[in-house]
């Protein structure tokens, strides 16, 4: 490896609940990772964003231990023999990271790191404590990859240089990187000695192994000599490295702060403020802010400590993932060079429903306001020449710039349903505030009939198939029904009747398009009718877990109907379900995996939908087993849920997924209330 950032999952994420710190989202990953495929066993601070949750300021933040007596440099990710990642609590997402090392001669070392985001400043603060099992001369290094422009189409890299900033008791030496609009600065402080300057610092170019531009990673880890060839500045795809010489101390504690700003001075001031405050003061403020936020939302609603912790951790996770502008990214992980740091309107709809279930009403309001603001209001058409006014693009960056643009009907009916949910929950002026948004979406749906009494074609929720999507069509029906209730409340009776009648026609035709007899596993709902592609198993021939959402939350197919019963009964078939744990996948022969081949495993969010169907049809144990037994066993080291798990229930890929966290909250509330929470109107 040359220090470049590999694809990765995330075991923990961290942000602050208030606006300033809320602009920063940091992540920690424990290896090994199915995404990276390397034989690593360490845990490392990774992708960290600021001011826009979809724009990472830096990638991996490595800490390395150089031992001069043993002539060896060990890195937290590549060389740790074991590691651990935990949260302080479900309500306070301070992250504790521990890496254990063994030098070639058997000497042991431990690095413990505590990570938080400043409650009052856009800054990340790390407390580092290194302990060594034998005497030696040592230098502790840090390397981080600047990635501010990595998400831009014209990625020319960043500019970085050395700077200083005044603190309360002296100047801090810092490294600054920027793209002219976004800045981050990094500095250190060793309380025991008062040291505020680096013992060597380097700005290098990623991938370079020689010459004036060699990377900081290669200088420190590759050359393995305990020294840094210092320089002042460099531009391009750069990494930043610096050292802290601790001599023959058998333990050392130091702080590292990364400050963010829209100007260099702001970033430098954030570093100085965090380091001057010290870790304990920053931690107290961080914990107080999070506890205050949790006081305003629901507590874990059961009498089970594990379930309550997972419920509260899910709310914490969703709050961390919400940019102060209201956008909620799907996840902070990167399965490949195309990460999930985007906003899918459908995902945001499920997050809104979960936030409302957990009494996080302010966050739900802000999320719906963002959807309202990003609705397409222009007379524009997409690549298929479909007029898109009143709809939403497939996904967005947090600033509202479209990323992918395909039409998905759950991302048209879904926001209308979310508006209806918020109105039902609050009973205030929400109806009027977003009425024009919902009406425009419903007008699109009314026009998007295929001429034979069913919604036109769209992309399925898995973003793979163009056809008459089972789940998308159900969401369109739900959207029209929700609109009918809101239009009626507004006195818009004729429009309400139009929506209700069209929804009824579509619902009557639903099984004709979406259900198949004698299909791949028997009689079941399928991914889509008239698909535009053939997979290993054709999308109009295979069962699909997204169909369970036609029952909940879209409320189009009754759980006790023969068609839904026959479908959910097949969800335990080995061709569709994980082999050793009760978790159904998206569909049989699904090859969206790290290897690109079908693998044994499942999707927790799919199993959640299936279990609500079972529960609605009288299986009293279905929800209890998911909430109390299954989902808690499918989590990352820090207790978060992923997109995919292995056949035996281990976290496999794409952690953590906010949609999975939302489903856990919704199922827990459904279990406790003994009614299907967030069910769309009939």
Précis, in short:
This is Glucoamylase. Residues 52-294 form the Glucodextranase N-terminal domain. The protein contains 17 helices and 25 strands.
Report the biggest beta sheet as strand number plus sense, adding barrel if it closes: 9 strands, antiparallel
Number of helices: 17
Mean of the pLDDT scores? 96
Structural class: alpha+beta
Strand order of the largest sheet: 6-7-8-9-17-13-12-11-15
Main CATH class of the largest domain:
Mainly Alpha
CATH architectural type of the largest domain = Alpha/alpha barrel
* Contiguous runs where pLDDT drops below 50 for at least 5 residues: none
Domain module tally: 2
Q: N-to-C terminal Cα separation, in Å?
A: 56 Å
How many DSSP-defined strands?
25
What would you call the shape?
A: elongated
User: What is the radius of gyration computed over CA atoms, rounded to a whole number of angstroms?
Assistant: 26 Å
Beta-strand residue percentage: 15-25%
Q: Fraction of residues in helices?
A: 25-40%
CATH topology of the largest domain: Glycosyltransferase
